[in-house]
Design a protein that fits this description.
single chain, 13 helices, 0% strand
Amino acid sequence: MNNQVFKNFCKYVSFNILGQIAYSCYTLADTFFVSVKTGTDGLTALNLAFPVFCLISGIGLMIGIGGGTQYSILKSRNEHKSADHLFTNAVYLALAFAAVFFLSGLFFSDKIVRVLGADDQVFSITNIYLKVLMLFSPAFLLNHLLQCFVRNDGNPSLSMAAMMIGSLSNIILDYVFIFPFQMGIFGAAFATGLSPVISIMVLLPYFLKKRNGFHFLKSSQTGFRFDKICFKKIVTNGIPPFLTEAASGVVMFLFNFIILRLTGNTGVAAFGVITVISLVVIALYTGLSQGIQPLISQSYGLQNRKDVHKLLKYALLTAFLLSAAIYAVIFWNAPFFVSVFNSEKDIILQEYAVRGLRLYFTACPFIGLNITLSTYFISINKAVPAQIISFLRSFFVLIPMAFLLSSLWEMTGVWCSYPLTEFLVAIVTMILCFRHFWSYQKREI
């Protein structure tokens, strides 16, 4: 049994990390191709638009992981009718958010671009990129939802395959649209928008061949209703992964706002390099957390506390090993990473970004701890501790820290505000964890 727990852990985590790496790589491809074609202005435009993309992805993960966690618990208890009811409500919730993003992109993208901080120099290309992304929001949201449910349905390999094929297609289409077809920034956005559509097509045979354990109920079917309690459960459990993803958008928006006033577009472009590398780093931790979530939720549903604790130990050890490897690679290769995206050989951009990489990613061990334990609490239906961790990381510590340190040490303060935030939140996370296990042991006595 012990061996089986470890095997399942390795299977789910490896599949999800590979899928997440592929998913983040298409952002790297976007950034690389756009930087080659349009230089610093293109990098700035991508970085200004990306908070909205993080918001869309965050809501997709909120509904997918929030619903998937509940589904896994219901499935382990053989409550299939309730599981179908949950999935159907999750689909309707995703479609409601998709409609808001789609209409906002159609009618208000120019106003959103101004709010994001675009000046006249980069307004046009930022608006094109953002509008296309928002028009594809229904595909992004449904893709996140279906991948999470398929993963919790015991098929992590299919979820990974859908993510990898969609990401690979985006990289290929990026190149084709930007260079041979000369479609510029629109081509980059269009390739990104087609990626979730292709991922959904990879998942479709799973449903057409009726291998899925969850089913969509029509409103006319007996027993289905729009359930406010169901919506609340999905959102409550989904807030932490939403904030984990949205935190990237908050960091980008906040740092863009501060950096524009300190160093202008060149500083924002330097932060754009850090941002795309950060997405790959966060993807590793997200893959780990999404890998353990179905296993912990299933063991929790079966009231198998021993396996729950083993899975948590494996996850924490993996997170710390990942952190050590990630920081070593970034520290020693920072000049190379920056040069890849600095096609204009801007010396100032190079200096800002290299220093930024080495300071910013000292946060790695604390990011791994915070994301892993937040996911653990979600997986065992303890949403409040996970929400506390996520709100602190995203808003309550990060925002004042960024303004304080940037006012004291300018760009060095900007780079240091993120790791210091994650460190302080990690202290709170450990306190919440100790309290949880202490109360659990007390109940056992």
